[in-house]
Design brief:
The chain has 182 residues and is of the alpha+beta class. It folds into 2 domains: 64 residues, lambda repressor-like DNA-binding domains (434 Repressor (Amino-terminal Domain)), CATH 1.10.260.40; 104 residues, Jelly Rolls, CATH 2.60.120.10. It is built from 5 helices and 10 strands. Strands 1-2-3-10-5-8 form a 6-stranded antiparallel sheet, with no helix packed on it. Strands 4-9-6-7 form a 4-stranded antiparallel sheet. The chain is globular and about 45 Å long.
Length: 182
């Protein structure tokens, strides 16, 4: 099963396990009922922002929402680490590490030049996060505070706020996101 089909099935299953109707899920996530229906039926590919809203409503991190059951392993070659690309922005994330045994997640992200991804404050309610820029430049707008990061810079996030990740540069920004759950 491809990542889109797997993701659609996982979202539908998680909603059903909670006994939520599409209308209830829409109200909790801020994603329209029609978009939720299209995502679950694989008639629309969700953007990163939509997936983050869904994960927040479900009380999960994006990595937990996208995780394959039983996919954690002590050793996982690069090619086996799950990846996903936002169909609108080309933002690409690779899940480097996720394990139910440890509350740490590591995600490598490639943000194309001139693109941005908005992340709702609800995504940060249950986590602490640090971003470390590996290549290129990244602008992070956290609430009303803007931080410009270059290769080697890192930013620890403050209290939950709406966040905008933006690449104003001319090259891909590659960065590592370290998340601690709970």
């Amino acid at each position: 099963m491809d990542i889109e089909a797997q993701l659609a099935q996982r979202i539908a299953d998680l909603r059903a396990r909670r006994g939520w109707t599409l209308a209830e899920f829409a109200q909790r996530s801020g994603v329209s009922k029609s978009m939720l229906s299209k995502v679950e039926r694989q008639e629309a590919s969700p953007t990163a922002t939509i997936l983050l809203r869904l994960a927040g409503a479900l009380g999960l991190t994006l990595a937990e929402l996208m995780a394959e059951q039983g996919a954690s392993a002590r050793f996982l070659q690069k090619d086996a680490q799950p990846g996903w690309t936002d169909p609108t922005t080309g933002y690409h994330r690779r899940q480097v590490y996720l394990s139910p045994a440890m509350p740490l997640e590591l995600v490598e992200v490639h943000m194309p030049p001139g693109k941005q991804v908005a992340v709702p404050a609800s995504s940060y309610a249950l986590i602490r996060q640090v971003v470390w820029v590996l290549e290129g430049c990244l602008v992070i707008v956290e609430g009303d505070h803007t931080t410009e990061l270059s290769a080697g810079d890192r930013l620890e996030f403050g209290p939950p706020a709406d966040v905008l990740y933006r690449n104003d540069g001319e090259a891909v920004a590659r960065y590592l996101v370290a998340v601690v759950r709970g």
